[in-house]
Design goal:
This protein is α/β, with parallel strands linked by helices and about 325 residues long. It is built from eleven helices and ten strands. The strands form two sheets. Strands 2-1-3-4-5 form a five-stranded parallel sheet, with helices on one face. It has a five-stranded parallel sheet with strand order 7-6-8-9-10. Helix 4 crosses helix 5. It is elongated and about 70 Å long. It starts with 13 loop residues before the first strand and ends in a 6-residue tail after the last helix. About 30% of the residues are buried.
Length: about 325
């Protein structure tokens, strides 16, 4: 009997997720790829895995991993290197063969850049009336502050009103039921501006914050990646770093509030085609990221001429092995 194209066999590459994703198991049941492949969370299958994925922010979980000959280790992260400097040191990263991050130089690029369909949905969504008294909305709860965003918010708030709905600088509570991201977008939509402040300033680190503002039909005030213009349409946001002071920025925002035609100019991009700098990436990002990873692993296995042999190694050393095993025994990390 002939198997369907997407049927799995024991000859298909097996990819093991050795760590959780921020403490939660990766949902392998939701992975659907055109090319066949196998996925597992079972660490007992480590020796048979063609590739092993380690979520870098969950670094406390991978100190006891053995690396088998010919196996590809995958470093997976969408977080800033600055926030995990200890674990992304050269001494640690030299053990990984495939990078799967937001950095454009990665082997499997995983930017926050929305897919084509979502861009279409953004521009099709009507711009909501700006009914809130405070011109600016802020949703921020994480404590990371390598960009200086906490001081920035504090200074700006001295000159213009900000409604902050997150745990940081909290001064406003969502009225009515909270349906998660849907409520967040609807709340932002009622404000003229939204603070889109990255936790770190790093090339390519352009997260969902600025895209949430676009989806809400609000003008983002952006602080973050120096190459953000490669990821967003021209004249679609306000660059917080372009002003000498928070006072000057607040004065400009008040000008936009009082001058509708200048404010509305920030929405002109919605009636134009996406710039080539964005559009050229969208076809390659259409397949789900884990399917692109499986494709790369298959290619590398096919291109490999001489299978490697030998015993497994303990890349992070005996001390890390024992510490990680102790954490598992104490139930501090998943077994």
């Amino acid at each position: 009997m002939t198997q369907p194209p997407n049927a799995m066999s024991s000859n298909d590459p097996l990819i093991l997720f050795y760590t959780t994703f921020f403490g939660k198991p990766v949902d392998i049941a939701s992975i659907h790829c055109e090319l066949p492949g196998r996925w597992t969370l079972d660490k007992r299958r480590l020796s048979e895995a063609a590739a092993v994925v380690f979520h870098i922010p969950d670094f406390r979980e991978f100190g006891d991993a053995h690396k088998y000959p010919g196996q590809y280790w995958v470093a997976w992260s969408m977080e800033s290197r600055q926030n995990y400097a200890r674990v992304v040191s050269p001494e640690v990263m030299k053990h990984f063969d495939i990078m799967m991050t937001h950095e454009s130089c990665s082997d499997v690029w995983t930017p926050y850049l929305p897919q084509a369909r979502r861009w279409q949905e953004m521009v099709a969504r009507p711009i909501a009336a700006k009914t809130e008294e405070a011109p600016i909305a802020l949703f921020q709860s994480a404590p990371f502050n390598r960009s200086g965003r906490i001081d920035f918010t504090a200074q700006l708030s001295r000159h213009i009103k900000i409604d902050s709905y997150g745990r940081h600088f909290h001064n406003r509570t969502i009225s009515g039921p909270d349906h998660g991201r849907k409520t967040k977008i609807e709340t932002i939509a009622r404000h003229r501006f939204c603070l889109a402040l990255e936790n770190s300033i790093e090339l390519d680190y352009v997260t969902e914050k600025i895209y949430d503002a676009f989806e809400a039909g609000t003008v983002p005030i952006y602080l973050g990646a120096p190459n953000v213009d490669e990821f967003v349409p021209a004249n679609s946001y306000i660059d917080a770093g372009a002003f000498r002071s928070a006072k000057d920025l607040a004065a400009y925002l008040r000008h936009l509030v009082e001058t509708p035609q200048d404010y509305e100019a920030y929405f002109a991009w919605r009636s134009k085609p996406l710039p080539d700098s964005i559009a050229k990436h969208l076809p390659g990002l259409e397949p789900p990221v884990l399917c692109r990873l499986m494709n790369l692993v298959r290619q590398r296995l096919e291109d490999r001429q001489h299978p490697r042999s030998g015993p497994p190694t303990l890349p992070f050393g005996r001390i890390s092995f024992l510490r990680t095993r102790l954490r598992r025994w104490k139930k501090e990390i998943p077994s």
